[in-house]
Specification:
Elements lengths: L1 H12 L2 H45 L1 H20 L3 H12 L5 H14 L7 H15 L3 E5 L5 H7 L7 E6 L2 H14 L5 E5 L2 H4 L3 H5 L4 E6 L6 H10 L3 E9 L2 H5 L1 H8 L4 E9 L6 E9 L2
Parallel strand pairs: 1-2, 1-4, 2-3, 4-5
Antiparallel strand pairs: 5-7, 6-7
């Protein structure tokens, strides 16, 4: 009470101009506080609006959904967990799948990627198309471009006949290391040989270094802008024979327009399109099969 009385006494001792100046100073401070609060409130509402807009985009736009799942969300989770998404997938398989059972491994990966974190595997829906194509071709020598975590490699290897082999190419050393463990756990390591390096460097070495005469089946699931150049490279290296089959994933999302334009307007290929959906999502996608006619 004493301090309040003292403050009041001091205020009463002020002259009228001084009081006006004090009131004016108080008003300016109050206005600044109100202005700051308004700006802060505007920023909060703007951020909420952006967040709401992004949620709508994620639900309606496949590209935005991929941006969120594959870049933003993944980077945040990696930072928190101090572990890559691919390592988390492998750990889930090791803990939940049955060793030596390829189907169990595939089911575990599909479960993780559909319920926990999206990943760029071919997935169960398009996997059926891959299975049927491998069964129809019955390859002795198959090539996969883009190993990633080994999902499609396991899928192909489990359908290979006795004595057949799969060569799978992966540029990323971390992915290659995880895929090796995945193949070993699934029990298909004797049918699969993993080749590390860029596809444009590995393909020219297939004949001499890896004793490949021609390829019966090629699965393209690596960088989409490499589909067309690598197909041309396979031809230039005489790795395709009459009847060799190419199957390309994600020709709609993210898309491989140059590849589609090349094979569909080339008399050396007979093409078939298989409409489907982007792995673990509802967005439309497709696979393209191209039979080399010689």
């Amino acid at each position: 009470m004493k301090s309040k009385k003292q403050d009041f006494s001091v205020l009463m001792m002020l002259t009228s101009p001084e009081r006006k100046c004090l009131r004016s100073d108080f008003a300016r401070k109050a206005f600044k506080m109100l202005e700051s609060s308004s700006v802060l409130l505007f920023i909060v509402f703007l951020l909420l609006f952006i967040l709401l807009l992004f949620v709508v985009l994620i639900r309606r736009n496949p590209a935005a959904a991929l941006l969120w799942k594959e870049i933003i969300r993944e980077k945040i989770t990696n930072l928190i967990m101090n572990q890559s998404k691919e390592q988390r997938i492998l750990n889930f398989v090791l803990q939940n799948a049955v060793r030596g059972d390829p189907c169990s491994v595939l089911d575990a990966i599909d479960k993780y990627c559909s319920q926990k974190e999206w990943a760029m595997n071919v997935g169960s829906e398009k996997g059926v198309i891959l299975d049927k194509t491998v069964e129809e071709v019955s390859p002795s020598v198959a090539l996969e471009l883009g190993t990633y975590c080994g999902y499609s490699g396991v899928r192909i290897a489990r359908r290979l006949k006795e004595g057949a082999r799969l060569l799978t190419v992966e540029f990323n050393p971390e992915f290659a290391a995880i895929a090796k463990q995945m193949f070993e756990f699934a029990g298909v390591q004797d049918k699969v040989r993993l080749l590390e390096g860029p596809s444009q460097e590995v393909i020219p070495q297939l004949k001499k270094k890896y004793e490949v005469d021609t390829l019966d089946f090629v699965f393209l699931d690596h960088w989409k802008d490499r589909y067309a150049p690598d197909t041309i490279l396979l031809q230039e290296c005489n790795l395709l024979r009459k009847g060799s089959v190419l199957l390309a994933d994600n020709v709609i999302i993210p898309g491989a327009p140059e590849f589609l334009n090349y094979i569909r307007n080339n008399s050396h290929f007979q093409c078939t399109n298989y409409p489907s959906h982007l792995e673990y999502m509802k967005a439309g996608d497709a696979m393209e099969k191209a039979v080399f006619l010689g």
